[in-house]
Design brief:
single chain, alpha+beta, 5-stranded antiparallel sheet, globular
Length: about 350
Amino acid sequence: MMCTLTLLVEGSRGERDEMQDAHSIVIDLWSLEDKDDSKIEAFKRKRLSFFSVYDGHSGAKAATYCENVLHKNLLNNIQSMLEMKMEGLLDADDALCNSSGELSPKHITRCILDAFKQTNSDFIKIVQKERLKDGCTAVVALLYGDLLYTANLGDSAAILAAETDCRSLKCFPLSKEHTASVYSERMRIQKAGGTVKNGRVEGVIEVSRSIGDAAFKHLGVICTPEIKIDNFSTEKLHPHFVILGCDGLWSKMQKQDVVKFVGDFLSAESTHQAVEEILEQQDLQLPDENLLSVEERVKYKVQRTVRYRKMTVQMAVKALVNEAVKRGSSDNVSALLIFFGKNKF
């Protein structure tokens, strides 16, 4: 799983007056630390990458707030948990929590849950002070070593495209939908004293879990995400890419259709011809390769490979968003595509 990641995000306002989606891409979450604590440096060998898409409603403030804050809250929680682990204050009964002090899935899950809770609590204070109605859904992917943690609340979603034994790409959902029409969600809302009318809480909002939406929090609209953990080092799957998207994408495209569309686009000869033509034009601006040293040639080839992958993924995610709009999505449409570099297009 430790491989180069190539990822791009694309968004479309659709027919809405305002773009209320937001996203975060942090390849190295460790780099955002504001503390210099050499005692926990040994625990940072594992990759820690954070990706998210936020779909705002009743305004963009909740999504923008999460874009700037949620991953920082998560990092602070992980850092605090590592310090507790180092001091022997955490149990080590988890089989995946080894003697090196790495955090177990149970610990990381607690960090994620607390980050969502704190982000919602802090934002609620802001909206109550400013009398705002903003809220947002969230879908988050956290890579910690070989483990992929997917956390979501609301109707945004994440999928994994992986190669099976028959060498075809198959879609594996990484999240569940949280709307007022889902039985278990509706039961919780009604138990809290809320009502569901026409599939909406109090006839107003469709999602049953969110950040913000202060007026509905006492009516069973919670900020607790569902978390799924996938271990790519042990499963007999060959992950190719992950897509995070808001409901504007999924409302017009089935998840398996999305996997097929992106997979076909990434492998299409026409895609690679287009990328190669662009790169050849860019190469004309560079010095003659024959004038470069051996070291410079190696560096150039590596950089060209990176540009090739980035441009291909960028074209794929843009084509995906355009396809959703073409199929009739009038909502904001945002998609984040994470391609695992060990795979061929």
